[in-house]
Amino acid sequence: MLHIVNKSPLTSTTLDSCLNTAIGGDILLIEDAVYAATCGNAAEAKLKTAMGKFKIHVLMPDLEARGLGNNMSAGVIPVDYAGFVDLAANNKSCQSWL
Amino acid sequence: MSTVKKFMFVNRKAPYGTIYALESLEVVLITAAFDQDVSLVFMDDGVYQLKKGQQPKGIETKNFSPAYRALEDYDIEKLYVDEESMAARGLTEADLLVNVTVLNRAEMGALMEEQDVVLSF
Amino acid sequence: MSSIEVGGKSYETDEEGYLTDLSEWNKDVADYIAKTENIEMTEQHWEVVNFLREYFEEYQIAPAVRVLTKSIGKKLGADKGNSEYLYGLFPYGPGKQACKIAGLPKPTGCV
What we know:
The complex is a heterotrimer.
Chain A: E1 2-5, H1 14-21, E2 25-29, H2 44-50, E3 54-59, H3 60-65, E4 77-79, H4 81-90, E5 94-97
Parallel strand pairs in A: 1-2, 1-5, 2-3, 3-4
Chain B: E1 6-11, H1 20-31, E2 37-42, E3 78-82, H2 83-88, E4 101-103, H3 105-113, E5 117-120
Parallel strand pairs in B: 1-2, 1-5, 2-3, 3-4
Chain C: E1 2-6, E2 9-13, H1 27-36, H2 43-59, H3 65-76, H4 83-89, H5 94-101
Antiparallel strand pairs in C: 1-2
Helix pairs in contact in C: 1-5
């Protein structure tokens, strides 16, 4: 299934909840959650660890909007809005970790 | 011929700081009319929704917590609470106003994976 | 906002005639609302209205018709816990009409 996270890992425990609960599949970081997928962010390490279990995607327009389009962590898969739609369509269900 | 789908409502917000908890409860009560397989999950701050003894009179807000006890009348009997979330908040099953099934994170994740529809609050 | 006038006192209601403040409810108001719904209150009507008020007192919600029917059956017997009986008393819907008379909000899930 697809898990969508939209909160910064430094102001909310949402990303942790997602990583600790979900058993696999796709994770898409959008809005303020994109900060987690940037070089040097405190959450980068746990995201790297999670890559063994999940495919981690980041919504590029949100990353670019925040001036971090060139700072994406290695191993994260960039997607545009069409890619977002594909992820939603190709998964049986979807949980938004609001 | 309609088929029964598995619906899961994931509640992760505390009851009065935002409107999520009340909105979720209202959607659940309406969904009950469609005779689907409904599960309710309470995790993270969502476990506070089930705390006994809520008295929101002082903040001039309606106390909607008694309605969780009516869920049984609506044939909604699958209530799951995340063990870790409860422990992190100093709560035990005895603090909750309804009977629930306590699951660990892995069991919760697996249950989520089984669903046809997941509604997030 | 609208209002109704009963016994020289004014009670605020919503556009559909449901009491805004259920703590203002009393039997005279109930009788008045029943008349506007073309219902002559009998002992059987009161039984349902009182049941609804007790249900609301305990759970803070007005039960959906299906739930009301089932719960009435449990408490007052199967001969009363069926839609034929309840619609006989409240032809336009036990949820809508009985709740209105009982001073409760419209049941959740009732459109």
